[in-house]
């Protein structure tokens, strides 16, 4: 696999030489907040301006305080930071180096690829029942749940672990997950469930013999040079680099965010309350990252599991992660990535075809990849600041469509009908 190509600058100047040396992808306009990489001609400047206006409009409407957007097609790159980390006067400007809580992007950046790596090595069987690895979970109709069904959200388990009665720690989370009963026969229903990925994160730890955060760091983040990505970010960096997610209000926090006092800022601790109770590391959430790091992951997927001469996943693992692996008749999911579930329609927009794939995160994050055009985009934001009440779904749909158009992707007539049928993709 050849090294990922760089975008040529328009003139050979000292600035362009420096930006190629430092960024390797384009020409830096200005350092710091609002900086962007000048895209090649094949990225549509008018559409990029529309993307800017869409994000800036959401900031002006206080739907999110700040964000970083990254669009890429075969070496042409556009990246820009917007807004500030909070709405308060004098708040820190967001820059491309701002670290965000990636929320459920953790499922596809860390957990699912970790499971697939262990399967590559023959250490676990994707078709095996969960109880082969966790005999203690053999109750409540879970006896036939397979690893595949956990990965594709077809296990029949509830959406999340209950918050009451109060509990704390990974062992308590595991016990609670193992006491949950299925609501539908495994393989018969699509339900997006954090419990699936809590169990998968624990499966990685049991099979690999090390914590999930260490396994992901050693096998995914470090090889990909995702230098700002990982769990428990306060162990590696100052809180000032991290966009905060919540302020305690003393009311709603009592049920869902009991460890947040009135006015207390959640900055550098995972927003997801279940994973925060687990100590900050979980299969369903906990990863913090930058848009540039997430872009490296997207590039690796388009490279068939390899980036800059370093192989992270096998082509087969990339296929399992990103193509339809769900039971016939259910929402189209890979073993990690969303392809055509109700959650996919907005980030995919109206132009990227079914067969493109990606994931979102509750905090306001997107990774969406179209392998056909070799295009992907990333949005990282903290739309949950200060109280989880903001809704950015309309922005997701706008960015999905504008990203495709800016990259020159054309809508595929009949693309949905051309999507691979679930039954044919399951092996």
Architecture overview:
With 427 residues, the protein is an alpha+beta fold. It has two domains: 39-106 and 218-409 and 420-425, DD-peptidase/beta-lactamase superfamily (Beta-lactamase, 3-Layer(aba) Sandwich); 109-215, Up-down Bundle (Methane Monooxygenase Hydroxylase, Chain G, domain 1), CATH 1.20.58.710. 33% of the residues lie in helices and 13% in strands. The chain has 16 helices and 15 strands. The chain has helices at 14-23, 45-60, 106-120, 130-133, 147-151, 170-179, 194-208, 212-221, 253-256, 273-277, 291-302, 315-322, 345-348, 393-406, 415-418, 422-425, and strands spanning 27-28, 37-38, 66-73, 76-83, 100-101, 246-247, 265-266, 288-289, 306-307, 310-311, 332-333, 338-340, 357-361, 365-370, 375-381. A five-stranded antiparallel sheet has the order 4-3-15-14-13, sandwiched between helices. A two-stranded antiparallel sheet has the order 1-2. Strands 5-8 form a two-stranded antiparallel ribbon. Helix 2 packs antiparallel against helix 14 (393-406), helix 3 crosses helix 7 (194-208) and helix 3 (106-120) packs across helix 8. The longest helix has 16 residues, at 45-60. The two termini are 27 Å apart.
List the helices and strands and how they pair.
Elements: H1 14-23, E1 27-28, E2 37-38, H2 45-60, E3 66-73, E4 76-83, E5 100-101, H3 106-120, H4 130-133, H5 147-151, H6 170-179, H7 194-208, H8 212-221, E6 246-247, H9 253-256, E7 265-266, H10 273-277, E8 288-289, H11 291-302, E9 306-307, E10 310-311, H12 315-322, E11 332-333, E12 338-340, H13 345-348, E13 357-361, E14 365-370, E15 375-381, H14 393-406, H15 415-418, H16 422-425
Antiparallel strand pairs: 1-2, 3-4, 3-15, 5-8, 6-7, 9-10, 11-12, 13-14, 14-15
């Amino acid at each position: 696999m050849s090294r990922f190509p760089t975008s040529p600058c328009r003139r050979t100047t000292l600035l362009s030489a420096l930006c190629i040396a430092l960024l390797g992808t384009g020409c830096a306009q200005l350092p710091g907040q609002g900086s962007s990489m000048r895209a090649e001609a094949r990225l549509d400047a008018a559409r990029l301006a529309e993307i800017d206006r869409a994000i800036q409009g959401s900031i002006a409407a206080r739907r999110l305080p700040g964000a970083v957007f990254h669009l890429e097609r075969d070496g042409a790159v556009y990246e820009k930071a917007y807004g500030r980390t909070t709405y308060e006067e004098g708040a820190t400007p967001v820059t491309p180096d701002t670290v965000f809580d990636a929320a459920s992007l953790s499922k596809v950046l860390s957990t699912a690829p970790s499971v697939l790596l262990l399967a590559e090595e023959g250490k676990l069987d994707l078709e095996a029942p969960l109880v082969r690895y966790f005999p203690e979970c053999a109750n409540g109709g879970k006896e036939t749940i397979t690893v595949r069904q956990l990965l594709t959200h077809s296990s029949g388990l509830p959406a999340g672990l209950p918050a009451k009665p109060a509990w704390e720690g990974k062992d308590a989370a595991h016990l609670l997950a193992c006491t949950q009963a299925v609501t539908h026969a495994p393989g018969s229903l699509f339900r997006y469930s954090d419990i699936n990925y809590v169990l998968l994160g624990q499966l990685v730890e049991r099979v690999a013999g090390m914590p999930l955060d260490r396994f992901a760091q050693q096998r995914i983040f470090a090889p990909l040079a995702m230098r700002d990505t990982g769990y428990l970010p306060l162990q590696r960096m100052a809180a000032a680099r991290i966009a905060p997610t919540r302020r305690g209000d003393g009311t709603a926090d009592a049920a869902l965010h009991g460890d947040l006092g009135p006015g207390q800022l959640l900055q550098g601790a995972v927003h997801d309350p279940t994973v925060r109770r687990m100590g900050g590391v979980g299969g369903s959430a906990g990863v913090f990252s930058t848009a540039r790091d997430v872009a490296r992951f997207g590039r690796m997927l388009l490279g068939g599991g390899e980036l800059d001469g370093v192989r992270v996943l096998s082509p087969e693992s990339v296929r399992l992660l990103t193509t339809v692996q769900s039971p016939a008749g259910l929402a189209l999911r890979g073993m990690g990535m969303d392809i055509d579930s109700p959650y996919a329609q907005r980030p995919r927009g109206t132009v990227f075809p079914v067969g493109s794939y990606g994931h979102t995160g509750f905090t306001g994050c997107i990774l969406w990849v179209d392998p056909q055009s070799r295009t992907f985009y990333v949005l990282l934001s903290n739309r949950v600041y200060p109280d989880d009440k903001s809704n950015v779904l309309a922005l997701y749909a706008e960015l999905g469509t504008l990203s495709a158009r800016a990259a020159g992707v054309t809508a595929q007539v009949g693309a949905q009908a051309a999507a691979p049928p679930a039954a044919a993709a399951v092996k």
